[in-house]
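Field: sequence (string)
Field: structure_tokens (string)

Example rows 1 and 2, in order.
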Amino acid sequence: MRSDQPHPNLWYPYSPIGGMPVPLRVVRGRGAHLELEDGRTLLDCISSWWVNLHGHANPRIAAAIRDQAERLEHVIFAGFTHEPAERLAEVLTTALPAPLSRVFYSDDGSTAVEVALKMACQYWRNRGEARRSFLAFEGAYHGDTFGAMAAGARSVFTETYTELLFEVVHLPFPATWIGDEGVAAREAAALGRLEAALEAEPARYAALVVEPLVQGAGGMRMCRPEFLRGVERLARAHGVLLVFDEVMTGFGRSGDWFACARADVRPDLICLAKGLTGGFLPMAATVASAEIYEAFVSPDPGKALWHGHSYTANPLGCAAALASFELLVEAEAVFRGMETHHLRFLESLDGTIATKPRVTGTIAAFDLETGEPGYLNRVRDAVRERALDRGLLLRPLGNTVYLMPPYCITDEERQGMYSGVRAVVEEITHLAP
């Protein structure tokens, strides 16, 4: 197969088929780098869709998978159990804040959110209440399955399916950035809208779904911990379940183990995926509070959660996740300290068209002021190509450029990433009208 043509049997994600760039063929990865078939090496500045916490081909995770594969590769998880799934559940619930104590395994972030929505809806049904509506925030992205799309903002991702999505009330999200003087007023307005919705129909809503601290695919839009604590206060006051979608922000990305810990908020349900296995295997988990779990405890089949997957609690995925968690313990100083480095880098962009600099933990982002905001902004391709020329893998979200490197990145690699991105921004700045 020629490397200068898309493969004739593949359908690539998130890409218009006509005129899409030819995919770059990767032959191997090691640490923070990817090697292309043409011999070029790229520094993976975004952890390949945010999953490779420890870089590529980490030998300890690979060894854990290999060892597990030689003993048990998979078994049906209905009526059976196994030690890796049990150990991982213990590790997760120990790391998460109380009362999150019951782990339901699935296969990806969208599904983790679907499971949370179903749990929340059926929780109320099992208690004899008909709460079938949800609250979420403008700009959110929770995945591409139908329930997850409904909870997310209406966008290019969802517009084809709008009439098929169930109703969700979307509230303003007070996105903020460094030097933002109006954030307190926007937070107060957003909390006022939330409180008004809850007071108007107190028995309508099953849950409020939130991407805590950072809205990822919506443009790395960030909010303050104070806002999330206000959201929690109102949800508790009105008896609405709080669902945190930590598919992206979990496992150190927020600068703490979980965004809920950094914000000092205790959700009723949390959705985990992406970095769970360190980028090796697809796996997800929805972790529920003991109170939610107890609402399903009944011999009545109608009160059971009728949901599952062929690969639920796959032993290989569990083994990878356990190994990744051990590496996270060792990398704690890295993910807690990366924010300081990001802040210094963002300061260096003064005088360019970079606006709204923002950082949360290991995630740094800024917007390019091009007069054409949004996910389909053409500047993204210009940034991507210029970054590739400098040996950097970036995937801008429209005019939003972000960095989310793996925790294994060295000081030298990090400085090379910053220097390269700054050079790209300066070049785009000079070309801007």
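Row 2 begins here:
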Amino acid sequence: MSLLVLMAFVTSCSSDEPSGESIFVTEEEKNMSEFDKWLYAKFTVPYNIEFRYRYQDSETDNYYNVVPAEPYKAQALAILVKSLWIDAYETVFGATFIKQYGPKVYQLLGSPEFDSQQSIVLGYAESGVKITLFRVNEIDLDNIYVNLTDAFRDHYALPMDLNYWYFHTMHHEFFHIMTQTRNFPTDFNLISAGKYHTSDWINVKDDEAPMEGFVTGYASKEPNEDMAEVFSTYVTSTDVVWNQILDKAASESEEARDIILQKLNMVRDYLNDSWGISLDVLREEVLRRTEGVYDLDLRTLKY
């Protein structure tokens, strides 16, 4: 949902027209925590983004039982999102790009959702406007971890891999926003036509998917998820990790490896031709920031 600013206009025949800020403090302003003020300064003012961490029934699917995000863990994730995601795009493409095309709302939830096949929902984007992220309460601030070495690490292993659960997910969902805004060439749908696991993708393991020409098991679900997984996997994977995926594909056949590279080239061309974006420049900036995650102070709000 877009942010809405209400403005009241008052007319008067007096020469003493009101000027400056109101002397009255609204209830909303009085109730703003330091975290709220930081979010306003870092997300709302520069990018018109609303970062929601409080639970709102209207913003969640009542089909699921979920819990609110713990504020101090939401704060840590907000710092990570700002540094590793927003700042990466701004560095490469400028603040206007984020303000114009970025999601208008981030919604955090403390617990996961499970879909009809009992797989965990990592996140989702709604109509190019809102991104929802889950499992916030499972973040361990004393044991921050980002996997940059093992393409097939168990996603449920501890410590929680922030790259998989959040940043891979955010790039994936943002790619959906981009393709909802400017259509992706339909030729992509033909590359793996007849090979998608529409109803049983959950049974396709990540270390088996490359042998069928998919970068992850989830990519085998259908073409839209496939292209988003190619994008998000590539920009968040070091050369070590990306080459592990290609080597696994090649262990089955050179054709499987070539299929993945063909998909990558189509994503690269789409970003360049439709958006004027260099996939590889973005990846370099994302990885540079990701490798510095351990230097971030996730407990202190800095302006």
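free_text_note (row 2): The chain is about 45% helix and 5% strand.
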